[in-house]
Amino acid sequence: MLPNLVLGCALCCTRKNWGQGVETRFGDGTKMKRESVQSNAPTENNPAELQTVFAMSSAMRRACSLDQVLYTVLKHLINYCHCCDAGYFLLDEPGHNSLQLKIAYGFPPEVSVDSLVAACQWLWQKAFTTKHPRVYPNARVLAAPLVTNGTSVGVLCLHSLTRATIFTPRTIAFARALMDLLAPYVLSFQLQEELRKIKAEREATCLDTDLLAILSHQLRSPLAAIKGYAATLLREDISWDWNAVKDFLQIIVQEADNATAVVTDILDHSAMEIKKLELNKEPVLLRNLCAKVVNELKFSTRRHRFAVIFSPEVHIVEADPARIEQVIRNLIDNAIKYSDGGLIVVRGEKLGNEIVVSVADEGIGIRPEHLNRLFEKYYRVKNPKRHVTGTGLGLPIARQIVEAHGGKIWATSKLGVGSTFYFSLPLPERKE
What is the pTM of this model? Predict the structure, then answer.
């Protein structure tokens, strides 16, 4: 709807400009004679100019990206109107102190566009500031500003590199009219981008607020337990036997591990939010890695039994051992939390060109409406029988780690029977 409104208003301004003629200044301030070009308006005697206007307006109506619209304009000006050899757009983008090169077209490989932009800065800067087209003294470079509501939003620069033709009053008038048509669209697009960024920042702020709430809640319990048991052990009016001291110390260690897990999840989440997840890949034997995690976690529960079953054809994969261990630990830890006992099976098998590792429990199972949301940030399924600690970030982090390795992660479940979580990793390509 917005591009159509912009298009209609701009066409009215364009017709007005064509009827009034054009007055252009050379770079040194010399005026070019004002000429009426009404009889040569693009809607009458010049099919190439008309095609350029329609191509641009069509791209705007299709809600193409700004780059696509600018590319369409340059392509038609150069290939169909034959008024120049090459050109580029400079836009006044928010957050920058100077005009930024947005897109260029038609320059041969041996020509440095950046050098041309720098060399012609005085020309396009004048066009942008004065809001009037400027032509280089030899009439081989044209700078036409994009002006809407008295505000310059950018500049179109056209170069005649090899042709003997120069920029005539008619060509300048057409370029100016075209920029009057394009300028409102550019401004509206930039405003929409700014609104999108503001919305994204607000959403990020909301997520950070949720993250802080989770962090404070999840750290309060382990810190309170650590302080309570440590203070109890320090009491001088009671003599504790070694078994009681050992039990207290085990609880302190376990709660410290819980607090460490919360902080680790927060740090990993923050790193992934800013796309700074680093992988240090090396040959990894998944069977040994799974067995290591099981041997460490089996001491945290007395109600579960564990089995690690890998088929003989499972080979070494190229992966970050610390990150993949984090994934395995998260899946096994969830299996312990969401089952009251029974067997937990860690299985590995080769399927095609990848290794699939699964962790199956005999727990409460997960309803279908929850199954599809397991890997969303902060989403947690409650255990109706007991309180389960966690940030709701473990599975989303596991997904990002697996996907960063080129694999996939998913889950299946049956209520009252249990759940199985799977992740796959690609096998390294064999060198001939």
Answer: 0.46
Distance CA 64, CA 58 (A): 9
> Which DSSP category does 234 fall into?
T
All residues at 6 or more sequence positions from 214 whose CB lies less than 8 Å from its CB, including other chains? 378, 391, 392
| Furthest-apart CA atoms within the chain: distance in Å | 107
Transcribe 275-339 into DSSP letters.
Answer: T------EEE-HHHHHHHHHHHHGGG-SSEEEEEEE-TT---EEE-HHHHHHHHHHHHHHHHHT-
Contacts of 53 by beta carbon, 8 Å cutoff, 6+ apart: 14, 42, 43, 178, 181
Grade residue 125 by pLDDT with cuts at 50, 70 and 90: very high
What integer pLDDT is reported at residue 331 of this predicted model?
93
Q: Which band of pLDDT confidence, cut at 50, 70 and 90, is reported for residue 80? A: confident
pLDDT digits (tens, 9 = 90+) for 48-73: 777 777 777 777 777 667 888 888 88
